[in-house]
Structure formats: structure tokens, C-alpha cells
Amino acid sequence: MFEKNNLFVAPLAGITDRPFRSMVRQFSPDVSLVTEMISCHSLVEQHKNCPRNFDRYDDEGNIGTQIFGADVNLMADAARILQDNGAKWIDINMGCPVPKVATRAGAGAFLMRNHKLAGDIMRAVVRAVDIPVSVKTRLGWDSANVDWRELVDIAADSGVAFVALHGRTRAAGYTGAAVHPDVKDCPIPVIANGDIKTQDDVIQMEKLGYAGVMVGRAMLGAPWKLEEITGGTKSIDLGKIVLQHLNLVIDYYGARTGVPLFRKHAAWYSAGLPGASAFRVAVNQITDEKELKDKISEFWGCVAEI
Ligand SMILES: Cc1cc2nc3c(=O)[nH]c(=O)nc-3n(C[C@H](O)[C@H](O)[C@H](O)COP(=O)(O)O)c2cc1C
């Protein structure tokens, strides 16, 4: 089995915020976590509507901060800011398929179409910081351009420490089964990402030469999942966990933003349980913090003591 720091929670926009990361740490204190992607523009210009622009990471264990953008200098500046804020490593997003990022901004997955710019960004970011730099990418732009291996070589030549490889193309988005190529002859460590859900998946990735695994959607409503699929188990009092997560969300965002933002987490936590759909419908109407806590307590038969 991989070392704990080679087990990663994937960056998930709108999900792997500070409250969620704190929940994961309860179960898996030593694994590696990656922040949601942060725009280099937003960070350098310190847009105030994004609380994550002001996060400090000193107390967060092994935490990578992910940046996206297509401007070489701004990416380097953003990396420096995050290093100063306590990030343990910088991750460059070269896989996001969302049009706003990949086509309009020329960033994320679009960098797979422009290896020259991708290499320039990697080198500039590596030069800008003293901490390790990683790249998260996909197999390629589409099935006619599966050139991940070239990008891994560019990353290695640029001084990037490791690559996380999502086993789908940009065109595939999040659909179809992830495909994990053999990476034994890669010059730098490669972390497997995409559809990793079970202990067998993890074992399979070891056989293919990966240096670790990165788990994304399997963590939704299950911050203990990485621990579970890598051999550790803990008994879980789900109602308490949900309330605790809600409290962290409210502390971080305030109740006005936090209550509606928590609806999706409540839905994921309750998925598959009896009465979940009625619970979800009720939660989606709630705007008041106490009412939401009471609803959660009622659903899971526990008491909101915090
Ligand atoms: C809601 C959502 C948000 C995501 N946000 C990011 C992100 O901010 N940065 C990134 O590199 N990938 C992002 N991804 C992609 C995941 O990190 C991961 O590569 C993908 O979900 C495949 O892994 P999985 O099958 O374990 O979920 C996101 C995926 C989802 C579903």
C-alpha cells in the first residue's frame, strides 16, 4: 500500500474548501489534500468575494494549493503568494474542461493544446517558489490527441516534482470509465486519478507503476472514504459528522452563505438512506441555521450540541 502522503484527495471546486478538508483530516490526518482551483487573477488581485484567497495553510498538514491561469507571470506571482500563505506545494491545473477556464481563459485543459505555454508556466512557477510544484492533467485534449506522456516529459524537464493524471480526455469530461495507462517508464512520479473507489483499484494502480492515488467524487458525503479504501476503518456517527461539517461551513462562510451552500453536502450525506429524498426537499427550502440543524438532528436521530 502507498505511503499516506501519496494518498490524495482530489481538488474539487466548491467542495474541497477549508471546512471539508478539516473533516477529511479527522479520519486521515496524514494524507495529502489539494484545495479547490484558485484563479491566479483572483488571487493576485485579492478578490474579496472569495474567502479562499485569504486562507492560511500553515496548520493544514500536507496541503497543495491549486492554481489556474494562462498568464506566466501571474501564475508565478500566485504561486509565491500561496507559498507565503503556508502551502506545502503548488499544483498547476492543466485538466479543467469547463469552457470558462479551458476555452475562454485559455487555461486548465487548454494548456494540453499549447505545450509551449504549458512548459513556460511550469518553469516560471518552479522558479518562483522553494516548495514542490505538481501538475494535474488528463490523458489529452480528445481521443485523437492522447499526448499525456509528452506533457509528463515537459513537466520533468521543467522541474515539476510529480503529475496527477486523470484517466480521461478533456472531451470525455467526467463520463465513461477512466483509463489508467501504465506509467512505469515515466521520468517523474505519476499519481492515478479517476474512478478510484475501492481497495482493489488502489492495488491495481500500484501494479501499473503509479506512485499514489487521488480520490475525488468518492469523497462526496464521505470524508472518511480515502481512509476506508486504503485499509483503515473507523466507526462513524454520521449525524454528528454532518452537524460538525455544517458548523465548520458556517464558521467559515457565515450562516447566510453557509446554509444554502451546505444543501449539496446534506444531499450527499443522506444519499441512499430511507427518507433521503423528502429530507433533501425539506433541506432545500431551509435558510435558517437552527432550522437546518434541527432537520439534520431529526433525520439522523441525534442532538445538535455544537
Ligand atoms: C465538482 C467537481 C469539481 C472539480 N474541481 C476540480 C478542480 O478545482 N481542479 C481540478 O484539477 N479538478 C477538479 N475536478 C476533477 C477532479 O479533481 C478529478 O480529476 C475527477 O473528478 C476524477 O476523479 P474521480 O473519479 O475520483 O472523481 C473536479 C471534479 C468535480 C466532479
Topology:
Blueprint: E1 7-9, H1 18-27, E2 32-34, E3 38-39, H2 40-44, E4 63-68, H3 72-84, E5 89-94, H4 99-104, H5 115-128, E6 133-140, H6 148-158, E7 162-169, E8 190-193, H7 199-207, E9 212-215, H8 225-229, H9 238-253, H10 255-270, H11 276-285, H12 289-300
Parallel strand pairs: 1-2, 1-9, 2-4, 3-4, 4-5, 5-6, 6-7, 7-8, 8-9
Bound molecules: flavin mononucleotide.
Residues 10-13, 15, 36-37, 66, 93, 95-96, 136, 166, 174, 193-196, 215-218 line the site of flavin mononucleotide.
Characterise this structure.
This protein has helices at 18-27, 40-44, 72-84, 99-104, 115-128, 148-158, 199-207, 225-229, 238-253, 255-270, 276-285, 289-300; strands spanning 7-9, 32-34, 38-39, 63-68, 89-94, 133-140, 162-169, 190-193, 212-215. With 306 residues, the chain is of the alpha/beta class. It has 2 domains: 4-229, TIM Barrel; 238-300, Non-ribosomal Peptide Synthetase Peptidyl Carrier Protein, Chain A (Orthogonal Bundle). The longest helix has 16 residues, at 238-253. The two termini are 37 Å apart. It binds flavin mononucleotide. Flavin mononucleotide is lined by residues 10-13, 15, 36-37, 66, 93, 95-96, 136, 166, 174, 193-196, 215-218.
The CATH class of the largest domain is identified as: Alpha Beta
Helix amount, in percent?
A: 40-55%
* β-strand number: 9
Strand order of the largest sheet: 1-2-4-5-6-7-8-9
| Tally of individual helices | 12
Roughly how many Å apart are the termini?
Answer: 37 Å
Q: Quickly give the structural class.
A: alpha/beta
